[in-house]
From TrEMBL:
Belongs to the class I-like SAM-binding methyltransferase superfamily. Cation-dependent O-methyltransferase family. InterPro entries: SAM-dependent_MTases_sf, SAM_O-MeTrfase. GO terms for molecular function: catechol O-methyltransferase activity. Its EC number is 2.1.1.6. Keywords: Catecholamine metabolism, Methyltransferase, Neurotransmitter degradation, S-adenosyl-L-methionine, Signal, Transferase. PANTHER family: CATECHOL O-METHYLTRANSFERASE, CATECHOL O-METHYLTRANSFERASE 1-RELATED. This is catechol O-methyltransferase. One of its GO terms (biological process) is developmental process. The lineage of its organism: Eukaryota, Metazoa, Chordata, Craniata, Vertebrata.
Length: 237
């Protein structure tokens, strides 16, 4: 009986994996519909668990649980009051960060696809967060960075404490340079996390790594490889 149970469990795992592999493209509407209908509204843990449940069987763009744990650790360590996320998608990483922000903390999250931005925003609201805690900006990262200072409220006057980049790896370096040029990174210290989705290689991070290694304003470079690169920017001595 035990053997049959194990075979059955292995069979179901293999079936779920195969479904995920042949399941086709990531569908933001399907992700949203699943999370919206299956989670308990107002319960952030339920929202995250429902995302994980969906991602176990379907193609998903949300960061996985290993990346999520690294992100949680960074947010708890840094205690940031102003966070910028580039690449919101359906709101999984946004919700993950929001639940760990201090009471006065604020998240600005950027998504260039208007439908995705609307659906992601709804998921953040369903998780129980209010508009004074977050703002969704529908724009490409390059366009919004130029005017981002307009969206930073009094809380964020000293600049951003944490930036999560999980949008387009081709934009990682240009956006980092733009954030620096616009003086949006907190001069006494801002951590920037770059998600690496190319398993087994750091190709997506090569340009950024070359830049931060040569620039003395980047004090430490932590590689939570193969998933995340974390750099600390500090302008003041
Ligand atoms: C990998 S997904 C983000 C996943 C999300 N961080 C999570 O874990 O739930 C990348 C998202 O970034 C958006 N995106 C891609 N390039 C962008 C850009 N240049 N500016 C803003 N958003 C962008 C895509 O539309 C997509 O929804």
């Amino acid at each position: 009986t035990r053997c049959r149970h194990r075979v059955s469990s292995l069979y179901h795992k293999a079936l779920a994996w195969a479904r995920k592999m042949v399941g086709g493209k990531v569908c933001v509407r399907r992700t949203h519909a699943f999370v919206f209908t299956q989670c308990t509204h107002g319960k952030v843990d339920s929202v995250l668990e429902t995302f994980d449940l969906y991602a176990a069987k379907n193609p998903s763009l949300a960061i996985d649980q290993d990346m999520g744990k690294i992100l949680d650790e960074a947010v708890m360590r840094l205690h940031p009051s102003s966070v910028l996320e580039l690449g919101m998608h359906c709101g999984y990483s946004s919700v993950r960060m929001l639940r760990l922000l201090p009471p006065t903390g604020k998240l600005i999250t950027v998504e260039m696809d208007p439908l995705t931005a609307d659906l992601g925003e709804e998921i953040i609201l369903v998780s129980g967060f209010k508009h004074h805690q977050f703002q969704v900006l529908t724009s490409s990262s390059a366009n919004i960075i130029r005017t981002l200072h307009l969206f930073l409220d009094q809380n964020c006057r000293k600049g951003l404490d944490l930036v999560l980049m999980d949008h387009d790896p081709q934009q990682y370096l240009p956006d980092l340079l733009a954030l620096q040029k616009e003086e949006l990174l907190c001069s006494s210290g801002c951590s920037i996390l770059f998600i690496n989705r190319t398993r087994g290689s750091d190709e997506d991070l090569r340009e950024v790594l070359a830049h931060v290694t040569l620039n003395p304003k980047y004090l430490s470079i932590g590689k939570h490889l193969p998933f995340i690169l974390e750099v600390l920017y500090k302008k003041d001595d």
